[in-house]
Write a structure and sequence with these properties.
Elements lengths: L5 H9 L5 H14 L13 H18 L4 H22 L11 E5 L5 H14 L8 E4 L1 H4 L6 H13 L3 E5 L13 H14 L5 E6 L1 H10 L1 H6 L2 E5 L4 H14 L3 E2 L1 H10 L11 H19 L7 H5 E2 L1 H4 L4
Parallel strand pairs: 1-4, 1-5, 2-3, 3-4, 6-7
């Protein structure tokens, strides 16, 4: 595709058919060539190539996350389905609507919110959502204190989420108060919005596995409205160690061999104990960085390697 004037380039950026940096290059080249060689410019990316590049970026970021095999498989299924439906539409064949409302089941810190945020951008790039942003809420953001208040609060959050994903953490709490609780009113509003705005809204309900199973039983129509159910298992000790190493690398730190051995022992859960939480790993690493700073500040001179290395003493709990 060729752009014959600057206005065409600007329009292409607005439609997502041209990368901003490429547009700048084209406009700069256009101003340099205006003195006699014409102002026709040739873009590097077509709209289809831009979408393909964004999808590649998404999968690269998704694959960099530790674990999460189920969601990685699902994302590729959605990508393939969306692409094939576009091809069928082009050939004037019947197409299937893509319902993307989801249930995320798992303990805190297993990646549910991170995945939801990535999916929003992914669905936007595929043309399945107009904005792709994430609105994260909980019971207090939806349930009011008197009749009519809940519907007002819920609709307000829905308005914020239109064009993107409404992520409700601990969604089962909406049904904990019984028949007279206002949480039921919030559920009714959500169900109606899922139908009225099904083409530009994705609803994700998240929470513990057992509680989410009980929650879906409280409203027989809920399960059928959420065709995608994803389990987020607890991380294994090996995965937790990988997460720790990844967090260090992102901050330009690294674990010593002794530190890796120490953490590998820390991450093994004791009988009856749960330890699959990436948030806890982040807290451990951030605390270790502070303690490393306290250890090194006493040295008048430090090497690059010392500034990067996390030692077991930086990781150990206070006695």
């Amino acid at each position: 595709m060729r752009y014959n004037k600057p206005a065409d380039v600007i329009c292409a950026v607005g439609k997502g058919n041209l990368a901003p940096l490429e547009a700048l290059r084209l406009l700069q080249g256009d101003s340099r060539s205006a003195s006699g060689r014409g102002n026709t410019v040739q873009p590097v990316f077509t709209g289809k190539n831009v979408i393909s590049k964004r999808s590649d970026d998404f999968f690269r970021e998704l694959d960099s996350l530790i674990g999460l095999k189920e969601i990685k498989k699902l994302a590729r299924e959605i990508h393939a389905f969306a692409e094939i439906q576009k091809r069928r539409e082009k050939e004037r064949l019947a197409t299937e609507p893509l319902v993307l409302h989801m249930i995320f089941r798992g303990n805190p810190g297993t990646g549910k919110t991170t995945v939801a945020r990535l999916l929003g951008k992914f669905f936007r790039d595929l043309g399945l959502l107009s904005k792709g942003h994430l609105v994260e809420v909980e019971r207090a953001d939806l349930v009011g204190e008197y009749i009519g208040h809940t519907a007002q609060k819920t609709r307000e959050q829905l308005r914020k989420a239109f064009g993107g994903i409404l992520f409700i953490d601990e969604a089962y709490s909406l049904a904990r108060g019984g028949e007279k609780d206002f949480g039921k009113e919030a559920i009714d509003c959500l169900v109606k919005a899922m139908e009225d705005h099904k083409d530009d809204l994705v609803l994700i309900l998240a929470g513990y596995q057992t509680e989410m199973a009980d929650f879906l039983k409280t409203n027989p129509g809920l399960r059928s409205r959420f065709p995608i159910h994803i389990d987020f298992p607890d991380y294994t000790p090996q995965e937790l160690l990988q997460i720790a190493e990844q967090m260090c690398a992102q901050r330009q730190y690294r674990l010593s061999q002794q530190s890796r051995i120490y953490l590998a022992q820390v991450f093994v859960p004791r009988p009856g104990e749960h330890y699959g939480n990436a948030r806890t790993v982040r807290n451990i690493i951030e605390r270790a960085i502070r303690r490393q700073a306290l250890r090194l500040i006493l040295k008048p001179v430090t090497t690059r390697d010392e500034l990067m290395l996390i030692e077991p003493a930086d990781l150990q709990e206070d006695s």
